[in-house]
Amino acid sequence: MKLIKRVAIFFLGLLGEWIFSRYLSFRGLNPQILLILTINVAAVSGAVEAMIFGFFWGLFWDALSLKLFGARALVLTLIAYGLGLVRRHVDMNTPASQAIVAVVATVLYRLILGFIFLIFSGQFLWVGWLVFILEPLYNGFFCFILAVLRPNSYLPSSRFRSIV
After folding, report:
1. pLDDT, position 15
2. Residues 107-121: what's their mean pLDDT?
3. Do the Cβ atoms of 42 and 92 come closer than 8 Å?
4. What is the predicted pLDDT for the residue at 65?
5. Alpha-carbon distance 71 to 112, whole Å?
6. Three-state SS string across 5-35, please?
7. Which of 42, 43, 99, 112 could cross-link to 140 by cystine, CB 3.0-4.6 Å?
8. Domains (range + CATH), the chain
9. In the chain, what's the furthest Cα-to-Cα distance?
10. Which pLDDT score, from 0 to 100, does residue 13 have?
């Protein structure tokens, strides 16, 4: 049952990214659904599962985008790894903390992706100031909504349950 749920999450994430980027984009501004879902998977299941999801989501996203293949897979995997390190110090179960992490992760995502493009193609991948400033806030909002809609989103994590 867990495998079916994970496969469904994987393909629904791809479908959501495609729908938002294709049909619900405004001047290039759309939520990075796969980044938001990677953050949510890291908060719920841990860094290893988030790295696996992020890697394969990135590969599929790169295959559809026709740009530098593997760049998004690398960046989403690095973000998931970083979230695993952050998860040890920050309780990622609250919607507010996930939203803050999403804002920071989006800025890092754009910068790391830009530098990867600079290294391999000789040109920094710049999306413009409007998208660079508003996209982290947009992703933070969507990550907050996803965390609120997730069951048991307000329960403290297992390391805090013994204290409360």
Report:
1. 93
2. 92
3. yes
4. 79
5. 9
6. HHHHHHHHHHHHHHHHHHHCCECCECCCHHH
7. 99
8. 2-155 (1.10.1760)
9. 53
10. 92
